[in-house]
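Thread: Newbie trying to understand structure tokens

Hi all, I'm a second-year student working on a class project, and my supervisor (Dr. K.) asked me to get a predicted structure for one chain before our next meeting. I've only ever worked with sequences, so writing a 3D structure as a token string is new to me. If someone could post the tokens and maybe explain what I'm looking at, I'd be very grateful. Here's the chain:
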Amino acid sequence: LVWRDLKVRYKQTVLGVAWAIIQPFFTMVIFSLVFGRLANVPSDGIPYPVFAYCGLLPWQFFSQALTESANSVVGNQSLITKVYFPRLVIPVAAVLPGLVDFGIAFTVLIALMAAFRITPAIGALAMLPLFLVLAMATALAVGLWLAALNVQYRDVRYTIPFLTQCWFFATPVVYPSSLIPEPWRLVYGLNPMAGVVEGFRWALLGKAGPPPGLLAVSVGVVVVLLVSGLCYFQRMEKTFADVV
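---
Reply by user tm_fold:
Sure, no problem. This is what the structure looks like when written as tokens:
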């Protein structure tokens, strides 16, 4: 399923895999002009283009993985109605292809860091895969809930773009989490992607690490969502072939 999605994603496109770089790069350019230059949004002493791109990288992966996972069961209805296999494979497989786009887009971040002479600390850099795993777990946890609900209620697919748009502005992609008042930091940690984005900037840019309390809350939320999502998905999967 992963290999099929990878082959289909950029089939019959002119630019092919270059879209994995074009989208975040030009988004970064726009954000740098609007938020960095016009709005003068602070970036904790980090050059704003690098600051924004480092936040966009995990966010783009998460947003794409969440959307694909949420629509995966309905999108594979012809397969589900023909043969039995563990349905959990479908949303899990939908999350993984985004790693290829992430890897391609990551090369631009390396070039930006080199251009601005930013060198990450080796010890912090070693933690980067853990934050990527947290982003994957968050996308899968929410995707399991939405994938199962989407089978029963088809209007769920219309709420996904709105959900990701609201989630984006609740995540410190274009602004630093230091703007959030201290008493609200733990509440802000209820958004797991806040810990992921701040973790990326800490591991790559030498920024102050995410507060331990915020990160602990984020991990706890992901664990609860993932366990409950697995339980709900497995309870509902026996009806998928009949309803989808």
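A couple of things are worth pointing out once you decode it. DSSP finds 14 helices and no strands in the chain. The chain has a mean pLDDT of 87. Feel free to ask follow-ups in this thread.
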